[in-house]
């Protein structure tokens, strides 16, 4: 962690609240630039990055400075984009189910982004809305399934594209494909890209139109548990795509990979105890605030920093031998609320010390179950590039959402 990050974390926990997320916007920008430069250099500017805002909607206005498109997967996410003045031409309106009244509202307002098509029914509804409102220029992106409930099988995709082409109601932007998150096997990704090329060739020969845009979510793997610069996987995917860049422009969807590293989840030590021989540290947060993919009962450890009351990062000891082991647990009423198991502390921790869970920028502030046990929801803060703090959400109580008749 940098001195600036530690100082800000100290300031937020002094002035605002004890459990919170901090997103370092400068770090996010720098990481984006690293990735985009690699794409531009190696793929000759034929690939863009699409931010899947489900990973962290709070980053949306900041990502807007950088990314070309946003993958927006619900009415709520769309409204966030409108609230934050995201230009609609940057929106790819996705979602396995799209409410008719919502799509109708969006199209009546002259939506000029892209809408994905995930089923024949969805296509029919969108076509009817286009017809009723005499909208003839909507860009659609039929989604090819990977065998689950999302998208359409190959034959259905081809038939939808044929109908869309013949009807004249739509512009066919290309095709979309996403098969899952945290994908490690490059052979799988290679097979997917090959298959997309084959499907595009089929569309060309059967319908006579050239598909030259592929929106692809490779499920970029982010390693939470080992020291990594995360670039080997990214580079390997670039190499897989590289032979196809004369033929297609690629839009690469990413949520976790773009957002994870800029985020810190911070919680303070509120109590310490020893039960028989086991040492416990209690923090006022817990697993309802932080979520690392592939984590079981605190076993595999993400990067964690221990900040003492003088705001020193005392994570690593000088000789590494004189460590004491503690289980770090949260304050939920469940034995699974274990944040760290037998974690080695090199300086004896005290009540009031701060624990910082790194790489918590994606899928924590939205996906973790904040309503469980009616605890307070953590505050959310942006560390701005000029060094200032911006409060994105105040810490707020959740109990009133868990009882009848309250807002
Ligand atoms: C269609 C689509 N694209 C992109 C993503 C983002 O995936 P990741 O966070 O692994 O990049 C998701 C995640 O569910 C998705 O459903």
Descriptive notes:
By secondary structure, this protein is an alpha/beta fold. The chain has two domains: 3-22 and 261-402, Beta Barrel (Lyase, Ornithine Decarboxylase, Chain A, domain 1), CATH 2.40.37; 26-259, TIM Barrel (Alpha-Beta Barrel), CATH 3.20.20. 29% of the residues lie in helices and 24% in strands. The protein has ten helices and 18 strands. The protein has helices at residues 3-15, 25-42, 60-63, 75-83, 100-108, 120-132, 154-167, 186-207, 231-241, 256-259, and strands at 20-24, 47-52, 69-72, 91-93, 114-117, 138-142, 170-172, 175-178, 213-217, 249-254, 263-275, 278-283, 304-307, 324-329, 338-345, 354-357, 379-383, 389-393. The strands form two sheets. Strands 1, 11, 12, 13, 14, 15, 16, 17 and 18 form a nine-stranded mixed β-sheet that branches. Strand 8 (175-178), helix 8 (186-207) and strand 9 form a beta-alpha-beta unit. The protein is elongated. The relative contact order is 0.16. The mean pLDDT is 94. The site of pyridoxal-5'-phosphate has 15 residues, from strand 10 and helix 10.
Main attributes of the structure:
407 residues; alpha/beta; Lyase, Ornithine Decarboxylase, Chain A, domain 1; TIM Barrel; 9-stranded mixed sheet; 9-stranded parallel sheet; 29% helix; elongated; binds pyridoxal-5'-phosphate
Per-chain topology:
Layout: H1 3-15, E1 20-24, H2 25-42, E2 47-52, H3 60-63, E3 69-72, H4 75-83, E4 91-93, H5 100-108, E5 114-117, H6 120-132, E6 138-142, H7 154-167, E7 170-172, E8 175-178, H8 186-207, E9 213-217, H9 231-241, E10 249-254, H10 256-259, E11 263-275, E12 278-283, E13 304-307, E14 324-329, E15 338-345, E16 354-357, E17 379-383, E18 389-393
Parallel strand pairs: 1-17, 2-3, 2-10, 3-4, 4-5, 5-6, 6-7, 8-9, 9-10, 12-14
Antiparallel strand pairs: 1-11, 11-12, 11-16, 13-16, 14-15, 17-18
The chain binds pyridoxal-5'-phosphate (PLP).
Pyridoxal-5'-phosphate binds next to strand 10 and helix 10.
